[in-house]
Amino acid sequence: MKKLFDDVSGACSRQLTKTYSTSFSTAVRMLAPSIRQDVYNIYGFVRLADEIVDSFLDYRQQTLLDQLRTQTYEAVSDGISLNPVLNAFQETVNRYDMPMKMIDDFLRSMETDLNKKTYDSKEEYDLYIYGSADVVGLMCLHVFVKGDAKKFDELKASAMRLGSAFQKVNFLRDFKADFELLGRVYFPGTDFETLSDLDKKNIIADIHEDLEQGFQGIKRLPIEARLGVYVAYRYYRALLGRLNRIASEDLKKRRIRVPNYSKLTLFARCYLDHKLNLI
User: Rounded to two decimals, what is the model's pTM?
Assistant: First the structure.
């Protein structure tokens, strides 16, 4: 009897993903159907928390985040939630027996966004990225390896590096909006007004290293997941290339994006690489 509600819940997570991120939803569609919905379910949950801390500025954000935390724990424990997005998420968490600590770490980083605007040390920065990005990659990895603990352990480090790379690219792309709308600067020891080309060069070099380590893991992913993750990797690499080509002053003035025509070319090349076994 619950199947109809579960189907509606999954549809909510799919629509949420497609509405908020066309690029990510394209990558998800490149995953095998057997794992695609679970990734939508993870993204739906992550997006709820992101919206609370980034968008709902005129509401009681701490209260909303506390409610999300409580409702998420209850959903996983009970195997159901009247919130369709949480109902879909708990199904994925329970199907793959994901550790609750991953959810704890993610929500802890989200809460940090409510109270912290700058990061004084690399340790603080790395801890935030672990919770906000790395564990999301690990949740997805649980899905990709379908519960194979040995394969998970083999790919865990590279999945975290890929998650870190994606998050750092987001920080660089959103440098202007994060500061002007939210008062945040994530890169340690970096000041919005004084960001130099050398600062940007060092940040990009760090991201390139993460991307390279992450790519090594992509090549060892199960075939059902490889193309979808490769598409996301190539998209972020293209975005980073555009960020690399502009002056640091431009980061403070506009948001850099990959044009739609470039995305189409990129996706086609990824598919060709996949068909030719070049990944």
Answer: 0.96
